[in-house]
Amino acid sequence: MPNALWKSAVGTVGGALGLVLLLSSANRPPLAAQVAETPARPIVLAFDPAQSKVHFMVDSTLHTVHGTFNLKSGSIQFDPQTGKAAGEIIVYATSGESGNNSRDERMRKEILETWKYAEATFRPTQIDGQVSLTAPCDFKVKGIFNLHGGDHELVALVHSEFAADHWKGTAKFDVPYIQWGIKDPSNFLLHVKPVVHVELDLRGTQAGVLTAK
Q1: Of 5, 41, 134, 188, which residue has the fewest beta carbons closer than 10 angstroms?
Q2: Strand partners, 119
Q3: What is the tally of structural domains in the chain?
């Protein structure tokens, strides 16, 4: 009699376990559907120079200087699975303006030497963080910034928002220009801080399929 009860209990538990596994299997999406959620191709972000601007700010003992540069062109391509990125953002170094003609002429001629280095470029190599199509998001873009003829590793803090096939965003980073070998504009009357704060205001379009996070 005990054996019969034991066999009955085992059979009941086994049946219940089988039912649970069957229901679990029925509710789980097929493997192919799970894989399909991951983008199979890179995402391409194209920049619109007409709607984009590069802003800079540098402090000095007398005042804070604000100015802008114009974007020539830009695009970033990245793999949303690995974060590996490529592309190039090009800025007209000759377009620098701060609202003071004599200061801007000196900046272009003596400091940035734009007659020799007419452009500044950023080549992204890696994106760290999750990029979302459905909500504002923040992530980092690592890459190489070429300024005044020299390559320098750089990390930009990016905030972006997508709407259909369009996007907008900002990218912020600091440029320790004296450390990078660019002439110090300070003189005996004015001391300029050795770091320039840069913020890119960007607009453009996007192509490809990006998994929403």
Answers
A1: 188
A2: 92
A3: 2
Q: Is 69 helix (H, G, I), strand (E, B) or coil?
A: strand
Query: In 3D, which of 125, 138, 122, 105 has the Cα closest to residue 213?
Result: 138
Q: Cα–Cα distance between 158 and 78 in angstroms, integer?
A: 14
**Are residues 28 and 93 both part of a single domain?**
no
The pLDDT score that the predictor gives to residue 208 is 59
Amino acid identity, position 84: K
Any domain includes 180: yes
Query: Is residue 137 packed enough to be buried (19+ CB in 10 Å), middle (13-18) or exposed (0-12)?
Result: middle
The secondary structure of residue 111, as a DSSP letter, is I
Provide the token pair at 90. 């090009």
**What local confidence, expressed as pLDDT, does residue 189 receive?**
78
Residue 24 and residue 28: Cα distance in Å, rounded? 6
**Distance of alpha carbon 131 from alpha carbon 16, whole angstroms:** 43
Asked if residue 71 and residue 106 are part of one domain, the reply reads yes
Do 26 and 92 belong together in one domain?
Answer: no
- Type of residue at 86: A
What does the block give as tokens for 1? Answer: 């009699």
Query: What parts of the chain have a pLDDT lower than 70?
Result: 1-40, 208-213
∠ Cα 159 84 173 (to 5°): 35
Q: Tell me which residue range forms the domain holding 25.
A: 2-33
pLDDT of the residue at 168: 96
Residue spans of alpha helices (H) in 37-167:
101-106
The structure's pTM equals 0.77
Q: Are 67 and 55 in contact (CB under 8 A)?
A: yes
